C-alpha cells in the first residue's frame, strides 16, 4: 500500500511537470506565431545564439541534437524550415564530411533578438508565481 502511494505521488508529479511544459510551450507558440516561429524554432535559434554568439560562428547539428527535445529527424526538418526561411545556413564540416554545421544568418539573429523578450516574458508568466 505504501509503495502504491509513493508511485501515485511520483506519477502525479510527473503529470504536473508535463502539464506545466505543455501549457508553457502553448503560450510560447502563441506569442511567437505572429513572427513566424514556434517554440521549438525559437529554442534552436536561442541555442545557436548561445553556442555560436558571433556572426559567422557555427555549431554542429550533432551538438544541437543533445540540447533540444526533438528526434534527430525532427531537428533536421526544423533546421530545413529555418534554412528555407533564411534564418540559418547549413554547411558540410570540412574535417568530417558526415558532420553538418549550422549557423545563424543576420536575419536569424535579428529575429531572435526581436522575439527574445516575448519568449522570456512568456516564461516569466508561466513559470513564476
The low-pLDDT segments are none
Name the helix and strand elements from N-terminus to C-terminus, one letter apiece: HHEHHEEH
Q: Which radius of gyration do the C-alpha atoms yield? A: 18 Å
Helix tally? Answer: 5
Spatial strand arrangement across the major sheet: 1-3-2
Overall, the morphology is globular
Mean pLDDT: 91
Proportion of beta-strand residues: 5-15%
- Class inferred from helices and paired strands: mainly alpha
According to DSSP, the number of beta strands is 3
Helix content: 55-70%
Strand count, sense and barrel status of the largest sheet are: 3 strands, antiparallel
What does this structure look like?
By secondary structure, the protein is mainly alpha-helical. Helices cover 65% and strands 9% of the residues. The chain is built from five helices and three strands. It has a three-stranded antiparallel beta sheet. A hairpin with a 7-residue loop joins strand 2 and strand 3.
Please give the structural blueprint.
Blueprint: H1 2-32, H2 39-51, E1 59-60, H3 61-65, H4 72-84, E2 88-92, E3 100-104, H5 106-127
What's a concise summary of this model?
With 129 residues, the protein is mostly helical. The protein is 65% helix and 9% strand.
Task: Write out key terms for the chains shown.
129 residues, mainly alpha, three-stranded antiparallel sheet, globular
Amino acid at each position: 500500500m505504501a509503495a502504491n502511494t509513493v508511485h501515485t505521488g511520483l506519477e502525479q508529479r510527473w503529470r504536473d511537470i508535463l502539464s506545466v511544459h505543455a501549457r508553457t510551450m502553448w503560450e510560447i507558440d502563441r506569442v511567437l506565431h505572429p513572427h513566424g516561429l514556434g517554440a521549438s524554432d525559437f529554442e534552436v535559434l536561442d541555442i545557436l545564439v548561445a553556442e555560436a554568439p558571433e556572426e559567422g560562428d557555427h555549431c554542429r547539428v550533432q551538438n544541437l541534437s543533445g540540447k533540444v527535445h526533438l528526434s534527430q529527424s525532427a531537428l533536421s526538418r526544423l533546421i530545413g524550415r529555418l534554412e528555407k526561411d533564411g534564418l540559418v545556413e547549413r554547411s558540410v564540416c570540412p574535417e568530417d564530411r558526415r558532420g553538418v554545421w549550422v549557423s545563424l544568418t543576420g536575419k536569424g539573429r535579428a529575429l531572435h533578438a526581436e522575439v527574445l523578450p516575448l519568449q522570456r516574458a512568456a516564461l516569466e508568466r508561466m513559470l513564476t508565481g
